[in-house]
Structure formats: C-alpha cells, structure tokens
Amino acid sequence: QLKLEDYKDRLKKGEALNQDQLEAVEKYDEVVHNLEFAKELQKTFSGLSQDLLKAQKKAQRRESLLKLEAEKKKLRTILQVQYVLQNFAQEHVQKDFKGGVNGAIYLPSKELDYLIRFAKLTCPERNENL
C-alpha cells in the first residue's frame, strides 16, 4: 500500500511512471478496499477462533466434571458393597442369615462361608488407631 501511495504522489507531482506503475495506481482504490476487506475477515476469523477456544474449554470442563461424577459413583458403589460384605464378619449377622431371621434370607453355611471369605479378600481391615 505504501508503494502505491508513493506512485500516486509521484504521479501528482508530474513524474513519469512506467506502464506497470500506472496500472498499479489505477487499481489503488481496489487494493485499499481489498485490504480493508482482508482486515475485517481477519477480525471475524479471530473472533471465531476465540469462540471456538471458549467452547473447547467449556466442553473440557464439562467432560472433566462428568468423569469426576462417574468416578464418585463407582467409589460410592464400591464402598456400599464393602460395607455390606464387612457386615458378614459380625456374628449376629451370620446367625441371622443362617437362620433366615430378622429380615435376612436363609443362606446355607457353605454360601455364607463363601461370602465371609470373599469379604476378607476384598475388604481391607481398618486400623482403629488411625
């Protein structure tokens, strides 16, 4: 654009320009218009790029929250199962299941022993001193 302005000034001062320079001066307004259009286009692309980055960050935050909630749900389920299994270690719970009393279903001794052994394998012992 500066070069074209220089040609334009030289032409106004009466200097002779070659054919290419004259053609360039004739297209000055078109070039300025195209430059302005390109600047507007660049602003639009920049805005779209910013919007896209914001949307990506928002989607990542949402995905992270969903993963966190899924992990919490898994942990909650594991803790509930551990709690149920740990209760099988208590004598009165075993008696209730052996007899099918106090709301417990009847479990044969063999099946109850399997549950007790499974509970010991899957549920860590708690240190009451901690």
TrEMBL record:
Sections of the chain in a coiled coil: 4-58
A GO CC term assigned to this protein in UniProt: cytoplasm
Keyword ATP-binding among UniProt keywords: no
Keyword annotations: Coiled coil
GO biological process, one term: positive regulation of canonical Wnt signaling pathway
Single annotated GO MF: signaling receptor binding
Domain of life from the UniProt record: Eukaryota
UniProt keyword Nucleotidyltransferase present: no
Pfam families: Caprin-1_dimer
Xref: InterPro entries: Caprin (IPR028816), Caprin-1_dimer (IPR041637)
Domain Caprin-1 dimerization: 61-129
Family: Belongs to the caprin family.
Name of the protein described by the UniProt record: CAPR2 protein
